[in-house]
Amino acid sequence: MGVMRMGYAHVKVTDMTEAKNHYNGTMGLYETHSDVTPDGAKRVFYKGWDEWDHHSVVLEEGGVGVVKYGWKVEHEADIDDIEAKARTFGLTVERMSKGDNPEIGDGIRFVTPSEHVFEVYHQATAVGTEVGTHNPEVFPRHLVGIGVPALDHSLITTGDVGTMERMLSDVFGFYATERVQTSLDDDHECVGTWMTSNNQIHQMAVIGGPQGKLHHFAFRLEDWNSVGRAADLMTMDDVPIDIGPTRHGITRGQTVYFFDPSGNRNEVFAGGYLAFPDRPTNVWTVDQLGKGIFYHDRELNERFTTVLT
Amino acid sequence: MPTLSIPALDEVVYLEPGETVLSGLYKAGFSYTVGCRRGGCGICKLDVIEGSFSYERPVADTVISTDERTDGTCLSCRAIPESNITIQMREYEVRLVNPLLRQINEKARLRAEALAAAPDTPTTPDAGAGDD
Ligand code: FES
Ligand SMILES: [Fe+2]
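Above: the input entities. Below: the structure tokens describing the complete assembly.
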């Protein structure tokens, strides 16, 4: 089936101590590894309690924004397939070797038309979920903070959303579940797209903006209640909340946007309807973008399109 | 006693020692466009045209260039005044959104000014409680 999910988001943070307090202490991620890069940057690797691969979030000290995303494919052969499609699309693809990323196998790496780095891999060291697979409990007894189960999706910006949508479709086999367009006419411009490869409502969303920037990356939660509880914990831990708890019209997801201690935007996201490739794509016109993004406020806050890392 | 002057509004805001520019302005009832509040996005930039400040917590190099480190550019969510400062906004002016807080801040500033003018007066913990 090709790409199964966003396997990891690798982001930069300005201060590792503060970042660890946030990603471990508030978000409740489990640290699985830490090291220092050859050029001296500290890194910490994390997974959520319901994830089985070695890591899903990598923090690297020095700056802000996203370093790269890892995409996990179902079969080893999917890597070659995606490599061929990427070359056909006109992208420059390089091979990456087992160990380039700790606990991640061979794969490929390329820079997208949006100037983000994507890696595609099949093998990751399995460490297991925190509840195991043998008559498992429904969640770990001693979660820390919000206790997010897993990484969910990300939203990035680019000067040319249409090309990025085409790339995700041609190279990854993604389809759009929702789009924002300048109009319903044939000559419309696409200013936002929410894409996936499977039933997950979106794995990657793309909106217009500067090249190579991060809008947010999101963690999955179960339902409204857990979104509300997450927001309570953010207040207790003095996490700056951008907006929420509220709902997105687009995806119908329930959400809080907030910032990590370096200023990278995070999200907790619950719900979202089941996606199917044959379901007609929802289309939003830009005049209704406010309602699409924040279903209750029906207005974009001034930060939505301007605050990026 | 750091104060923050906004000539465009003819306002002088009182800041607690160690308080950031952003926090001081919001606590005094003013608002303007801010984002991450953590020195990472650069949206809260304004210009300090008089006085000095420093960053005691990390700010991202990508949002503040080497030149901006010395030309008065101020990431207001992280900047802590080292003296009285005077600011100038860039795109949008600071706007008063909470007159009550402004009034409270004004009293705090006047109290602090009075205290500073009479340095021999011993400071009492409840100094100024209702001295308007
Ligand atoms: S609000 Fe983001 S740098 Fe100040
Ligand atoms: Fe999101």
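Note for the figure: The first strand of chain A starts at residue 3 and ends at 13.
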